[in-house]
Please model this.
Amino acid sequence: MSNIRLRFAPSPTGYLHVGGARTALFNWLLSRKEKGTFILRIEDTDVARSTQESVDAILQGMAWLGLGWDEGPFYQSERFPVYKEFVEKLVAEGKAYRCYCTPEELEAKRELAMKEGRKPKYDGTCRNGVEEPGDKPHVIRFKAPHEGVTVFDDLIKGRIAFNNDELDDLIIQRSDGTPTYNFVVVIDDATMGITTVIRGDDHINNTPRQILLYEALGYPVPRFAHVPMILGADKTRLSKRHGATSVMAYRDMGFLPEAMVNYLVRLGWSHGDQEIFSREELIEKFSIEAVGKSAGVFNPDKLLWLNHHYIKESAPERLAELLVPFMKERGIDPESGPGLSLVVKTLQERSRTLVEMADGAIFYYRGDFAYDEQAAAKYLVPDAAPLLTALAEKLEALADFSQAGIESLFKEFIAEKGIKLGQVGPAVRVSLCGGTASPGIYEVIEALGKEEALRRLRRAVAFIG
Model:
């Protein structure tokens, strides 16, 4: 075990976004590679916007992706006494102060600074202490140094420096007594022993303020790695207008978790030209330093390609289990027809998602389907009836009702009749499936089973009349 400690700290104000999932994945992979500790923390201090439904969605998303955590989930809303203690510590040490400026006064100061071409930051009116009644509304601000430079070596972006005179005296406790985001993040990361912080690069501007807080509190400063954002095809930040952005929406669209994991890790990280990785390979080969500096572009077609690969490679039994809810959504009881694993086997090569697979499987369970009009007009014709009848008789007598046995029977049948497969195959396909697009005939007959295949062939003969 190493002493590296990483965390994923989402806000429960919505679903688990693909960007958040990628950040969680990078943290998880590094913790597993270094045999360290991965912590889950729910940043729910925004009481008005945080919901239990969102917490559940985040936990479900993490579980679906297989990103198990070693400690947590910890909830910030349960740690308010801890934050209060640290606020009081900073005030007692003269490193934070009470600010009595009203919102109206602050707005006036901001407008004046803008007018005079100055940076609109707090002017420090209360920085050196003011006499005010104790019950007068006030916030508590951190007394940030106004000289020098705050520098850190980002594991992805390299050295980043901020002049301290550009930084504000950060509010660490609001007038209602609640702590602010930048403060609680530092307290949590410090007290939980976080050694490495991997997060989105929209947090870069928070980093110098947080470093100054670590130093004021006497805690070691963690290493930082700021991951570039994910963009849509139009190079703007990924949002709902680009399609689904929720991890669980992709599950519901029939994607496999391993495809999503493989896709997300490759959005910004690479290992040579390799595209497809097992989970074990990702853990072995991942390094945060190999994450690129530029934004990744979300490509739904690439995700579909990966999903198709994993569907083809998966065990039919596992896919059958995953397919059950999709079949039930379509009003089909998978117990009412052929074995679902056998059906899955016939559809794996053709299906890019479980939704496509479920749609493709419907005909196996609905024997009363209507024939596609064009296909029936072309193939279910009077000349086909005797061939279908004779074929049904042969199939009825077949002892080896495996795919290989069925294929041998067809070869014998067309040789005996002096015809080509194309003269009977399409009529058989329409009889069995209702149309011309389906898995291979031999696979379909085997999956349907003898009794159902014969029933469908004879139904087609009756339809021809």
Notes: The mean pLDDT is 95. The radius of gyration is 32 Å.
